Amino acid sequence: MTALPELTTEHTVTVPPRELPVTTTADVVVAGGGPAGFCAAVAAARAGARTVLVERGPFLGGTATGAMVASFMGFYWRTTLVGGGIGHEITRRLVDAGGASGFTPYVLAEASENPLRVRTFPFDPEVLKLVLDDLAAEAGLDVRLHSQAVDPVVSEGSVRGLVVQGRYAPEAIGAGVVVDATADAVVCRRAGCAVENPQGRHERQPMTMMARLSDVDIYRFRALPREEKRRLARLGVAAGELAQQLLSLVSSPSGHDAFILMTRVSGLDGSDSEELTRAEIAGREQVRRVLSFLRREVPGFENAHLSAIAPWIGVRETWRVVGDHLLTESDVLSGRQFPDAVAQAGGPLDVHDNTNGLTLVEPPAPFSVPYRSLLPRGVEGLLVAGRCLSATQAAMGAVRHMGTAMATGQAAGVAAALATQLGVPPRAVPADRLQALLREQGAIVDSPAQPRLPRTA
């Protein structure tokens, strides 16, 4: 018997081309079932489009459920509501389902050197899974879980569908418009879109592995003075058990569980499978060290035990698309309002780096996201939403909050539906028509009024 040559990394292999069946056709296909993609799909369906939602995981919700980031930010600027529409409907349904109690004041990064007061919406990720299933069914979505968006179907220079890898075989889904809400801009990059990532891949914002601890005395911990929390955070860093000076947590609606946000995995690329594997393992090891420190040193955690580690690590930044408008830090920090605004946002500008830690800056006023930031430059038939939309690294730190991601997703979904109904590419959708339809769906697209409550509320 003749021995076959050993394959090495210097070799290439030939994969035979093959035709794929078009198993489904729709008006709109959305890639990614996280906060942005889910709202895009529901919005498109409510606007009358036959919509398919493709999600690689076994449930919807993305970062909110799979990464267990159990608190929505971005719905408020100070005390002014800037996020409405489907995202706000999700918060109301969570309250009705017993998975949340409502919006609450919160001190972001309280144990750090530059804390910031914000309004957040803590929730139970398990209840959110049920809420999203209900909303998807009511909207009539064709949901495809366990399905990875692989490639765009491109015909005559326009995206006309999506290649999806299921559990066994790939298939093609034909569509009038595709929305890329994959967070990693998978579809856009495969379509040849330019990306805004001037820095090296390993200079992206660090990742965080969340964990759920049970039997925590939340009230005792909350009652600790800020200076004591600062002391404990410094102690944890000095002991090598905390990766940064943060003692951040979100309490569950029951008040006895804590979702801890205290890990930090730096210098790895969250869009590379090999490096992401290393990040997942490193994140879980950090959870082990954090739990040991909390139980030993931090009041309220003496009897805490680990009840769950997030199914996957939270990734803040990978690829961002270059669109017809690149949202900048100046746009955010000037509270800029665009004539083609499709979403309002309140920040804060929240940028984690790999050396100095955390930068938090509150915009002086709500700012808007223009429709042009959802239009990948030079490609037709494709929209983008969520943290991979067209923005610089700093600006993305202000629009990646899940409340804002939901708003950009809803805008992309409505725009996709409108494009198919008008028979035009998304770039030709009139901004005023899009804004009017978004208002009908309850979205906030116009500059909100100034807050009427005191700043400390």
What does the model show?
The strands form six sheets. Strands 1, 2, 8, 9, 10, 11 and 20 form a seven-stranded mixed sheet that branches. Strands 13-14-12-15 form a four-stranded antiparallel sheet, covered by helices on one side. It contains eleven helices and 20 strands. Helix 1 (35-46) packs parallel to helix 3 (125-139), helix 1 (35-46) packs parallel to helix 10 (402-422) and helix 2 packs across helix 10. It is 28% helix and 22% strand. It folds into two domains: 22-106 and 121-200 and 317-440, FAD/NAD(P)-binding domain; 206-309, Alpha-Beta Plaits. The chain has 457 residues and is of the alpha+beta class. The protein is globular. The longest helix is centred in the middle third of the chain and has 25 residues, at 273-297.
Annotation keywords:
FAD/NAD(P)-binding domain, 11 helices, globular, single chain, four-stranded antiparallel beta sheet, 2 domains, Alpha-Beta Plaits, alpha+beta, 22% strand
